[in-house]
Amino acid sequence: MTESSGAIEASERMPTIRDIAERAGVATSTVSRALSNPQRVNARTRERIEKIAAELHYVPSSQARGLSSGRTGIIAVLVPDVTNPFYFDIIRGTQNQLKAAGYTQLLVDTEEATDVELDALRKLRRTADGIILAASRLTDVQLTEAARLQPLVTINRATADAPTVLIDTPSAMVQALEHLASLGHTRVTYVGGPTSSWSTHRRWKAIEEAAARRGMTATRVGPYSPKTSSGAAAADAALRTGATAVIAFNDLIAIGMLQRFRERGVRVPEDMSIVGCDNIFGADFCNPPLTTIASPIEQAGRTAVSMLLAQLDPLHAATVRRLAVMPTHLEVRASTGQAPARAEHAG
């Protein structure tokens, strides 16, 4: 009976980072970094550690302390549209990182609506230990107030009052413009996203300034909801500008535009080149495959979690990183090509 009792006690003992380290064959310091500061550990090692931590049902000591201090062990992740494939990788990144750290993720769809986002934040103040806001539609004043009331991190929405993860799409927009210029395009249209989108204004500014430096004509149409269904209206508006190339706010709009161009007999890329943004799943399956802007979206989610958990740790709160910038690049596919001799489709 004693042996049996001892076996039960051993099997029920809470696992530690030492247990994880022994099974993974790494130092305890490596396990600690992988779970609290993942960008400092190579991806293969980090994933092995996370898998072992999940198998052992590891609960970090920081969370164990939190149980006695009124913490819930829940982190809320708010996204404007859970059906948008761009957010799939954000959610996957936050989920994996939170799970490894012993937290539960609560996912909220804010429906591209400021009032829904504000209401969710209010209700989550007692439910969640912290908040991650992806592409927040709040104003600066509203974000400042939200950050004052609860630990939070934003993704793709900079604010002076909360740590921020930025996906550097403006730089890639310049890459897209340079790519189009190399193909002989001189007139480019930007199809803008929602007015409440902070990112759409940054992207247009980058395109406008880069076009001016290169002697190109840049026009803007929109705003449009970031959905495939917006593509038809966006395509019609883009044709009226006389441009020979389009850069869309996101891949969903761009895919909808491809469908509309096909209906109107506008050949892509022979008559019109098109560039999307986000490199969502399926962008390379389009007809033609979509040239688009790619970025480490899942890593953005992981980084946001690390920045938030650092806020929740009294030992590291004073040294929380305030800004992390994710690099981007242009993924060139068949939807962009040489500019036509003239824009015969305009009008």
Automatic annotation (TrEMBL):
Molecular-function GO terms, alphabetical: DNA-binding transcription factor activity; transcription cis-regulatory region binding
Domain HTH lacI-type: 15-69
Xref: SUPFAM superfamilies: lambda repressor-like DNA-binding domains, Periplasmic binding protein-like I
InterPro entries: HTH_LacI (IPR000843), LacI/GalR-like_sensor (IPR046335), Lambda_DNA-bd_dom_sf (IPR010982), Peripla_BP_I (IPR028082)
Pfam entry (one): Peripla_BP_3
PANTHER family: LACI-RELATED TRANSCRIPTIONAL REPRESSOR, TRANSCRIPTIONAL REGULATORY PROTEIN
Protein name: LacI family DNA-binding transcriptional regulator
Organism annotation: Sinomonas puerhi
